[in-house]
Amino acid sequence: MDHLLTPELEALRYLTYDCEDRIAYITLNRPEKRNALNADVVTELKQAFEHAENDDACKVVVLRAAGDVFCAGADLAYIQELQGYGYTDNLDDSTHLMQLFHQVYTLKKVVIGQVQGHAIAGGCGLAAICDITFAVPEAKFGYTEVKIGFLPAIVSVFLLRKIGEARTKQLLLSGDVVSAQTALDLGLLNFLVPADELAAAVRTYAQRLCRENSGQSMEVTKEMLAALPEMALEEALRYAAQRNAELRGSDDCRRGIGAFLNKEEISW
Q1: CA-CA distance, 70 to 26, in Å (whole number)?
Q2: Percent of the chain with pLDDT over 90
Q3: Sign of the dihedral defined by the CA atoms of residues 89, 17, 145, 154, in that order
């Protein structure tokens, strides 16, 4: 376990943070509120992910939740509070969530979602923003914002990249709640795992990334994949070639190639 938590993490009210076997576990911990989001929860998530990114004891991050629901979206009291906001307050609040999603998307470490229950609206956004997402077959997914006059704004930027325009329109314009199998077919998820096997499957996958893959290579690959969609073809190819050349000169690459050529096992 990681005993070197910052004062902010020691004071967490809505999350827990643990590091074990080089895996950081960020756990939504409001089961009585279905792990719903409000500004304070978003603040704590940002603090936890920042700590995980700088935590030398951790190589991979798992986002999970306590209770039966992964995340039900915005907290009811929070939605009521928003009724009194003006444009500036709403912009600040929306920017707060945007910063969290951007932080996870660009985090230097791989983020794995462990979705043990329903993920709706902002909760579905959290599940989708992870690099790799595991879910149980019973979980439901959906962006229901249009049904209450809200806008699924921040997540739309990432969904267009992740699953394309046609599938994003299908989910966001309908507001439909879909099965885990449909979410898998649409590309929101990567793996469906029975509930009693979910934690072990995520742990095994995360441990394999820690053991078999260079942390530097995963970091640069994630950074590259985030940058490429905005580039024209020739620019993207030049950028990819430059990153390739840079990484070839790294200690990790020299170690990895040396082990490969010598037919030796390498422990990352």
Answers
A1: 12
A2: 86
A3: positive
For residue 67, which of 28, 109, 123 has the smallest C-alpha distance? Answer: 28
CA distances (Å), origin 65, targets 1, 17, 102, 166 = 18, 11, 20, 30
**pTM, 2 dp:** 0.94
Q: Can you spell out the DSSP letters for 194-215? A: -GGGHHHHHHHHHHHHHHHS-H
Residues catalogued as catalytic: 145
Strand order in the sheet with 140-142: 119-120, 140-142, 177-179
Q: Where are the beta strands (DSSP E) in 29-173?
A: 60-65, 110-115, 119-120, 132-135, 140-142
CA atoms within 13 A on the CB side of 246: 11
Question: Distance between CA 64 and CA 20 in Å, rounded?
Answer: 14
Q: At 32, which amino acid appears?
A: E
By residue count, the chain amounts to 268
Q: How far is CA 214 from CA 93, 160, 201, in A?
A: 37, 29, 21
Q: How far is CA 22 from the centre of its chain?
A: 17
Phi, psi of 151 (to 5 degrees): -125, 125
**What span, in angstroms and rounded, lies between the C-alpha atoms of 255 and 268?**
10
Q: Report pLDDT for 16.
A: 96
Strand partners, 159: none
Ranges of H-type helices in 213-267:
215-227, 233-248, 251-261
CA angle 131–134–137, rounded 5-degree value: 145
Over the stretch 103-147, which tens digit does the pLDDT of each residue have?
999 999 999 999 999 999 999 999 999 999 999 999 999 999 999
Which candidate, 141, 107, 84, places its Cα nearest to that of 221? 107
